[in-house]
Amino acid sequence: xxxxxxxxxxxxxxxxxxxxxxxxxxxxxxxxxxxxxxxxxxxxxxxxxxxxxxxxxxxxxxxxxxxxxxxxxxxxxx
Amino acid sequence: xxxxxxxxxxxxxxxxxxxxxxxxxxxxxxxxxxxxxxxxxxxxxxxxxxxxxxxxxxxxxxxxxxxxxxxxxxxxxxxxxxxxxxxxxxxxxxxxxxxxxxxxxxxxxxxxxxxxxxxxxxxxxxxxxxxxxxxxxxxxxxxxxxxxxxxxxxxxxxxxxxxxxxxxxxxxxxxxxxxxxxxxxxxxxxxxxxxxxxxxxxxxxxxxxxxxxxxxxxxxxxxxxxxxxxxxxxxxxxxxxxxxxxxxxxxxxxxxxxxxxxxxxxxxxxxxxxxxxxxxxxxxxxxxxxxxxxxxxxxxxxxxxxxxxxxxxxxxxxxxxxxxxxxxxxxxxxxxxxxxxxxxxxxxxxxxxxxxxxxxxxxxxxxxxxxxxxxxxxxxxxxxxxxxxxxxxxxxxxxxxxxxxxxxxxxxxxxxxxxxxxxxxxxxxxxxxxxxxxxxxxxxxxxxxxxxxxxxxxxxxxxxxxxxxxxxxxxxxxxxxxxxxxxxxxxxxxxxxxxxxxxxxxxxxxxxxxxxxxxxxxxxxxxxxxxxxxxxxxxxxxxxxxxxxxxxxxxxxxxxxxxxxxxxxxxxxxxxxxxxxxxxxxxxxxxxxxxxxxxxxxxxxxxxxxxxxxxxxxxxxxxxxxxxxxxxxxxxxxxxxxxxxxxxxxxxxxxxxxxxxxxxxxxxxxxxxxxxxxxxxxxxxxxxxxxxxxxxxxxxxx
Lengths: 78, 702
Hints:
Chain A has 78 residues and is of the alpha+beta class. Chain A is built from two helices and six strands; from the N terminus they run ββαβββαβ. A six-stranded antiparallel β-sheet of chain A has the order 1-6-2-3-4-5. In chain A, a hairpin with a 2-residue loop joins strand 4 and strand 5. Chain B has 702 residues and is of the alpha/beta class. Among the domains of chain B are: 2-175, Rossmann fold, CATH 3.40.50.300; 189-253, no CATH class. Chain B contains 32 helices and twelve strands. In chain B, the strands form three sheets. Chain B has a seven-stranded mixed β-sheet, sandwiched between helices. In chain B, helix 4 (107-119) packs across helix 12, helix 21 (429-438) runs antiparallel to helix 23 (470-495) and helix 31 (659-669) runs antiparallel to helix 32 (673-701). Mean pLDDT of chain B is 83; it is low at 1-7. Chain A binds chain B through residues 19-20, 24-35, 37-38, 45-46, 48-53, 55, 59-66, 68-69, and chain B through 69-70, 72, 74, 105-106, 108-109, 112, 222-225, 255, 257-258, 261-262, 265, 288-289, 292-293, 296-299, 301-302, 386, 389-391, 393-395, 397, 402-403, 427, 502, 504-511.
């Protein structure tokens, strides 16, 4: 398997969401409703100047997400 | 009869949409100046309403709901939007129709909210906004097809240019009589069956209406809310049924969280495949990307951020100077003019020295407040504010907060009240509380008059290092002091009182946009109206009361200074003087501090009143000149020095001298505990901080 967590990708790299593994219902629901569903394409745009959070591109828009939250997004590398 | 009644009855329209979709611009384009800003009862979520009359005579009231991504409320703001749409909010009428603003350049995610709105059986009109932006990005939308697939009328708009808003109004006329649409997306059969059963139970047992039950059934099926809590809310039958549903769906291999979300997005995908085409290559750098590569650059990002802040505060100081002078002169003229009409005596003094000079002293600062809101509004509208949160998040994380707390704190530079209100976007309650507790430490615009007066009087306009203005530098230092103390206290609170894990930070970074001049001006107008209203009510009242307290009991003989010392205010000031001496303050400052407990800018008008009374034989000197020339009768040295001025500024940075903030805190936290705590800790902080400043200052001078 080539599954890694979202925060392991580098800027410019992209992958496809496999599943969310957060235990926090609110965060999970929010990520889902923002469109981070199984099969959704995500791309890392950049890291913030201090290394955290991460800017990602999903469904044509930009989202800022902390590394710790990105750890709960399992993706398969393209 | 019925037709006339239909004409008279006001129809209620709600505008809803994702954050950053141009919802407020649509609202402003429809209502213009006919809008009213208030609050929802019991909470401080801002409620914007506008009333318009359609050309067929129908009166409609348009409500601008807070922006939200979905109807699963996370923050208080989003909860309001959901509650209004579900008719759960007392005093807010259930909408007769809904305008859903959809960002054409970001259509998939925007359609998610729309699908939830359509499900609620409203007559819906879609304002497909920012079609110009979508076109630039190579996105083409077949509007007619989209409309037939969604089953709702769609009006393409460019709200910032008022394109399409007339069509929106005429569509409104028809929409009120159109029958609502049924759900078009499909959920898996077994889920749909359970969903339907749960709805029936909620309707019969919990007495919910069908639309609320529809929404709640999905929420109950997809999230594991605290089961003990649910047991109290739900009847035993519904609760047991729900538990069985959960087990059943899980045993069938469904991910309960994502069933409904996935089904909706699947339908959205099908819809988009049929009517949205994207022609530009995905990897092309957009305009926003190019700006972002500079603005969020490792080094450049911070340079830009601090330069922006620096420029903002320097400009507020310099640009506002001329209009301030003009307003000041205007009030002087008014005072002189009215002074000529009223014969000398107590009434003359009351009007000229009490009311006019007191209110005038505060209104003078209107230009600075306008500039501040102009800058903050521009930062927000351009999309820079979100970048500021993005680059500052790591630092905020260090004190246990997140980037989202940065925006309320930055807004508190304007006023702690909108700042505290802006914390509603923070989902974690503890983080929200910490942000609210420290927000008033950020130097708000009410401190600006105090700073401005003291800096103008005691800090020379010397240029240092070739380009920095000393006065501007002192001002920036005061703002920095507030910022640093706010972060320090936040860290302390997160370590002690309000321990908790770091909250989530999921935030959209909207594309950069040209700010709408209209939005910004409306916003500034709203703020200045509130400010002037306060000047006309609270400050006028305080000025008159203070004049009275500073005039009576009267002393017939003696210098004006002795007369003041004899008055009620003089006595109160003298009474607290022993407590103020360690800070380097005298009884006159004591009077200023006591009277500005209500709100900080009163300090300026109090000083105006006190010094006008003291030197009533020499009214032409401006307040700052009078304070400068106030000499200790014993030593002959100036009473006020640069050190006193700096100590006073430090005091005002740290002290909670604002009853409106206390009132907002009470409302937001639903009790007196936190506002009382906030008032106490800030007072201690101010006293200690000022004491240290004074002692260190004395040591440096000697």
